[in-house]
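Lecture 7 notes: from sequence to structure.

We start with a single chain of 216 residues. Read the sequence below before looking at the structure.
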Amino acid sequence: MLEWNQFLWVDSFDILSEIETRSVDLIFTSVPDLNDLNIKDISTYETFISNAMDQFGRITKDTGFVAMCQTDRKINAQVYSKHAFIIRVMGWLGFVLKDYKIMVVNDIDSKDQYKFPYQHLCVFTRKGTIPRKGEWLRHILQYEMKKHTRGPYYIWNENFVRLVIENLSSENDKVLDPFSGSGIVPYVARSLNRQYLGCEINQEIYNASLMRTAIV
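Now the structure, written as tokens:
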């Protein structure tokens, strides 16, 4: 039987299949970029995303939430809108887009021709409600982000993660990040007295993240 309160070096799909149907209160994650997965074509990448979303739809409670924070990018001389594809798939799975915010990355003047300097925070649910108060009322969020020491990955600011977890879950709720990277989501979830589960498939990133967060 799968145990919670862990940050694991594992392929998340091996763990997702073990999670009980309609048992998770909050999934808060960012799907890896196609470059991170060494995928060259969009159709293969969208199959990967769809497979993950299928599992998210199965394991999330009807009153629970799936919070996806994604960066779109340019590929093959065109803009690939990852967040728009995710919205469509979640709609097919019976979810509504309950909230949507822009999360600004540090340098809005970036001249990177492939990635945009902001992320799309899309919050989905079937029947859940969100309290409308405080910082959550903002449509555009800006928190300082730092690059991971083991790759070109940004680490979400702890205060941003806290904002999402506090507004979309309660104490002792189950919070899952199947693509944990830095481990910041399970780390903050633990500090907020949530049951947490994080997965990271890259051993080097996992080891560096484990040392930083001291999650066991």
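The first helix runs from residue 12 to 16. Keep this in mind for problem set 3.
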